[in-house]
Structure formats: C-alpha cells, structure tokens
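Hi support team,

I submitted a single chain yesterday and got back a structure, but I'm not sure I'm reading the token output correctly. Could someone confirm the output below corresponds to the sequence I sent? I've pasted both exactly as they appear in my results page.

Thanks,
R.
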Amino acid sequence: MIDRDPHTGRYRPPAPPHPGDAALHLARLRAEFPTFGIIADPRRPLWMAVKGDLVIKAPDSTRLRRRLLAISGR
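Hi R., thanks for writing in. Yes, this is the structure output for that exact sequence:
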C-alpha cells in the first residue's frame, strides 16, 4: 500500500524487500554467474555485478539478472 509521509505530504515508496528474499536472490545470482562478484543493498536499492573493469548496476535483482544475461549472450 502506498501512503503519504505525514511530515512532507509526499508519497512513500513501497517497503523494501524482506532481507531473506534479497539473500535468496543474491545466492541465486552468484550461483548462476560465478565469474562475477555480486553485491546488493536492497534497501537503497542497489544491486551490482563486477568483473574486472566491468561494473553493472541495477535497482533490483531481476533487472541485474537481465543485464547479466544480455552481456553473457544468453
């Protein structure tokens, strides 16, 4: 449910994903792309994959996976 901040009147973004969900997505990405270093801060939201000089950023695990698949030609 989207609600307004009582102090600013602006809409609040939805709650961040449950940390357990983020850990599961992170483990799956690491297993699927073992040659990349993958880190995540889902509350920010920031997901990153690094391989050498290549850095790929995304706001969520789904978009990061899509970008990794595109780069790897799968």
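A quick pointer for reading it: The chain has a mean pLDDT of 85. Let us know if anything else looks off.

Best,
Support desk
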